[in-house]
Automatic annotation (TrEMBL):
CDD domains the record matches: TlpA_like_family
First-listed, main subcellular location of the protein, grouped into a coarse class: other
Organism: Parabacteroides faecis
Annotated ranges, domain Thioredoxin: 26-168
Keyword Signal: yes
Signal peptide: 1-19
Subcellular location: Cell envelope
Protein name: Peroxiredoxin
PANTHER family: THIOL:DISULFIDE INTERCHANGE PROTEIN DSBE (PTHR42852), THIOREDOXIN-LIKE PROTEIN HI_1115 (PTHR42852:SF17)
Keywords: Cytochrome c-type biogenesis, Redox-active center, Signal
């Protein structure tokens, strides 16, 4: 009985680990996928327009508690430091959200950085299958130099260091 229980626990752990690894489509060293963000009003932002910049892409959802913590850090520490840097671009993308939902959310939270919609997961789907928050830092050469899942203060500090190094 103990042996079969241990085997079952091991199989569940292996499945979860495999499922989490399968969630990653884009990894460090990969080229940033091509995408175009289309707002409800028709405004478009394409990945091609970001060429030569350090790009931070963050996927979140308004209902996600770790996302809320991370975005508060972005507002307090990251955005004020990099918002005026011409070599830096930040895309905070609401997975499965419309412009209207994001505007309402932003009004409530008071963020000063723009939020972009991805109502059909089209952009998120080019990067990952599941799990948010997700953060990708793209170097000036268009390659991923950092990929993070979830949120911790330590990882956020590491991200800030990577942005500093990439901008230089």
């Amino acid at each position: 009985m103990k042996k079969s229980l241990l085997t079952a626990i091991f199989m569940i752990f292996a499945f979860i680990t495999h499922a989490q690894n399968d969630a990653d489509i884009i990894k460090v060293g990969d080229q940033m996928p091509a995408f175009t963000i289309v707002s409800d009003n028709g405004t478009q932002t394409s990945s091609a327009s970001l060429k030569g910049k350090v790009v931070l892409i963050n996927f979140f959802a308004t209902w996600c508690p770790p996302c809320q913590k991370e975005l508060a850090e972005v507002q307090q520490k990251l955005w004020p430091k990099y918002k005026d840097n011409k070599s830096f671009q930040m895309l905070v993308i609401g997975r499965e959200h419309t412009d209207a939902e994001l505007a309402k959310y932003n009004e409530k939270k008071g963020f000063t950085f723009p939020l972009y919609p991805d109502k059909n997961r089209a952009i998120f789907g080019a990067f990952a299958k599941n799990l948010i928050p997700r953060t990708y830092l793209i170097g000036k050469d268009g390659k991923v130099i950092y990929a993070g899942k979830g949120y911790t203060e330590e990882e956020f500090a590491e991200l800030m260091k990577k942005i500093d190094a990439a901008i230089k």
